[in-house]
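Quick log. Single chain, no ligands specified.
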Amino acid sequence: MIESIATGEDDVATFRCVTAGVEVSVTPTFLEQRSDPGADLYFWAYEVTIHNGGEDPVQLKSRYWHITDAGGVVNEVRGAGVVGKQPNIDPGESFEYVSGTPLKTPSGLMLGSYTMQTVDGTLIEITIPAFSLDSPYDIQLLN
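-> predicted structure:
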């Protein structure tokens, strides 16, 4: 079952999705100090929590990110693990990490998936919820 929700707490949005009992939560943060709008550089950090709500241990084997900037330019990132790790996540346990991404536009969108492996060797795709990358430099238009 896949379920995506965005919740706000203290003006911070967290995006969640559950696939095969594994919940992925992402909280993006615009980093003003690492950004340079005059040079078309906007930078975000995103904190990810992966919680294994299933009955069996899983290991995160690889990641896939689909990053789209406000101009429609797409960057795809694939690789082993996350932040140099391929963590094992036992039932009821979580793994957290922080990473980041730059864009050439003041807003964008990220989504993706993790490939997890169960103890019997089965590979499952875990959805990373789509989340927005918003900065104060983005022009908001009301229709």
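The first strand starts at residue 4 and ends at 9.
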